[in-house]
Amino acid sequence: MSSSVEAITVLSSDGDEFKITVSAAKLSKPLNWMLEDVCFSDDCDEVPTIEVNSKTLVKVIEYCEKHAPRANSGASDSDAEELKKWDIEFMKMDVKDILFHILMAANYLHMEGLYDLACQTAADLMKGMTVSQIRKIFHIKNDFSSEEQEQLRRQHPGCSFD
Amino acid sequence: MAQNLDRLKDVVPDILSRLPVKSLRRFACVNKSWYNLIKSPDFISKHLHTFNNRKNSADPLNLLVNRIRRATFGPSGLNRKAFVSLLSFNPINKSTSLNLLDLIYNHNEVYHLEIFGPCNGLYYLHSITNLIVNPSMREFIVLPDSPAPPDTHFLQHYMGFGFDPNTNDYKVITIMDTWLDETDEQLPWRLEIYSLNSHCWRNVDCTLPSVSIWNWSWIDAFVHGAFHWWAYDAAGDMVLAFDMQNEKFQTFRVPNVRSSAEEYAGTVAKFRESLAVIIYPRMGTEKCFDLWVMEDYSNEASWTKHSIIGPIVGARRPLGFLEENNLFVVEDNIERMVFYDLQTEEIMRTEFHGEEDSLQAVVYMESLISLRKDNENPQARASFFGMVPDPLFEGNSG
User: From B234, B240, B295, B395, which residue has the greatest number of CB atoms within 10 Å?
Assistant: First the structure.
């Protein structure tokens, strides 16, 4: 690949074009492999598609661009503290609408930092939820038969299926 | 959308492994696949590792603590009781809350209680009644009495608690002297091992090294698969080790780390998965604690003076380390629990205190390991207990 390339263009699963700097793309292993691919030489027109929808990809790129300087050069403790605060603000989002999509995108793009952050955020949000709330956000149906529920209630006094 | 949901399934274990046991016990009722996941040995071990190693400086510090109180309530009026509680210290506003484990002790008079562990989130509570407890699952099991030979009694006994990965079993060991009731004649020392899998004690025939155990510090050191005691013989200080897997004793000589046993106290400890000893002066209002680490386990030549902790004003004796938080825990001269930050050297004093030298504090660990088997009658072995705010703790009212 040519060293003059500073940003690359990728397509979302919805077909929208996004620009991501080379240093930010390095946060993702699959993107990094793409960078090393001949496809990004100056005379190549092919734009790779990332199987992530536009809404999610915007957020993923925002995270990458913010974290790239620290990931590439290392940073002081005060930077790390600032970044932690930024992460908390960044993660203030709806679980079902966007957080789960970011989680799956981070998993697919092998982005360890974002994946850990999204898992922990989801866990913190779920911690106090009821069983029915969990079923609702994960689109899960209660598949215990009434006999099984009765047996579990006997084994685990106080357990609730609602 | 269907494709999205399929991919969400792959990440569910990673999300759930970051949840406290209390939430997971509830979420086992979501559906069959979540139930099977939460009960599976692979997930239980993933959760143990992930949940207990997550770092968030804003999280409260959780410890399992033990202290004797001269309680004024109860049918018999004033009596001594041992209380085991979950203590949460908020490092931001320095507030402390204390929740009692509502165990059978609260209804009996107790003169001594000692916490061993945690070992994968399980604790062994040694007292007139012996229990293995999983505080996050709210489960406990009462150990049977260890069978003493007829017409004998004991005067001294030393306990240990650990895990045998080979048999996936938790073991309590007791080393005890034996005396004939009739003639007061001393019989050889005995070694008894309790196994959680079999739920019974067995006598183990083995020769005990001729050393004396010093059992004052109450700091646990189950490390490298062995339980350790601070011991000595005519030649000086040593560590006595009992390997939980091959059930054999070993001794390690400790280098000449203290000038005199009258002036300096020593205890074993666990530091960064290594066997360690802490040496500190018995007297004084400002103490330093020498931390020695055996860098290459069982190699006596590898003892290294890792650091000098302190000076800590008002410190009396060490209680242990909270390694995830980089803290050293000590008891001060008025029996309060104090945190010392190993990095910033900041001292945080809590409102929590013991009485009559009883204070003990160990790290609190959450674990899904259940003390009972699913297919058996839940009442047969393990029982459940509740937790209630300690009515005698001043910090709870705030």
Answer: B240
> CB neighbours (10 Å) of residue B366?
20
The domain made up of A7-128 is a member of CATH 3.30.710.10: yes
- Examine the pLDDT at B145 and tell me if it is beyond 90: no
- Model confidence pLDDT, tens digit, residues B47-79: 999 999 887 767 889 999 998 877 655 555 556
- Mutate: best of B9, B11, B22, B53, partner A, most A CBs <10 A: B11
Interatomic CA distance for residues B269 and A7, integer angstroms = 53
> pTM of the predicted model, to two decimals?
0.90
Q: Where are the domains of chain A?
A: 7-128
Min Cα–Cα distance to chain A from B117, Å: 26
B41 pLDDT above the threshold of 90: yes
d(CA B126, CA B129): 7
Q: Is A140 on the interface with B (CB under 8 A)?
A: yes
- C-alpha distance from A27 to closest chain B C-alpha (Å): 20
Q: List where CATH 2.120.10.30 sits in chain B.
A: 55-392
Question: What ipTM was reported for this prediction?
Answer: 0.90
Residues above pLDDT 70, as percent of chain B: 91
Contact criterion met (CB below 8 Å) for B371 and B132: yes
Give the whole-angstrom CA distance, residue A139 versus residue A20: 33
Helix (H, G, I), strand (E, B) or coil at A98: helix
| Alpha carbon distance B349, B352 (integer Å) | 9
Q: Which of B82-86, B181-185, B239-243, B379-383 has the highest mean pLDDT?
A: B239-243
Q: What is the CATH number of domain B55-392?
A: 2.120.10.30
